[in-house]
Write the structure tokens for this entry.
Amino acid sequence: MSRRNKIYEGKAKVLFEGPEPGTIIQYFKDDATAFNAQKKGTLAGKGVVNNHISEYIFKSLADIGIPTHFIERTSMREQLVKAVEIIPVEVIVRNIAAGSLSSRLGIEEGTLLPNPLIEFCFKSDELGDPLIAEEHILTFGWATPEELEDITHYALRVNDFMSGLFAGIGIKLVDFKLEFGRLYEGEDEMTVLADEISPDGCRLWDMKTGEKLDKDRFRRDLGGEMEAYKEVARRLGILPNADITEFADHQNKGK
């Protein structure tokens, strides 16, 4: 990692300059955080699993016409992506009441919502990613009306696709977080899906047992985090034959 120019390091990933102009390398870390990084830990192999799951989902979304920044997975922990200007708005799509929605509004966790609910948060670790309305986004120029329309349209299409994808492997898609960016190609500008989609940013419940297969296992001290993440990858048919932690240890020793 030290041989390359680091652009940014976040809670779950490190970004490096890519091999070509307009490209970036995303390196997936094993660090785990919750409650705006007030709780921290390490889950051996998490970065490897999330890299593979995110690759699978982004490629599948591209196949149905969702524009993304993803180019290709280049190693067990790394992806090559297009450089984008991140729109400072996190998009949360909810199908079932859970987490902060339940605590804020007193809705029992597990309550099926009558239709998908989209919420927006201002992307700011310092402020704790506060909940905002569409009017905030437009008033402060965080996104244009056209971008907001694209974001909402893509978020609902992603939800439709992922709900079916996970239902097919016995998993309920409770809610998930998305980020979008502006991709500049010559004089053209377009809104594209960015960041990652993995159990770090999704709530995934087993349809039969209700078992949590996502980062809530870390948030709530349930244990078995990596077993849950690997189970999601296994059901998607993308778990490598060898043990994930062996890959993680091998890659870490090589850094």
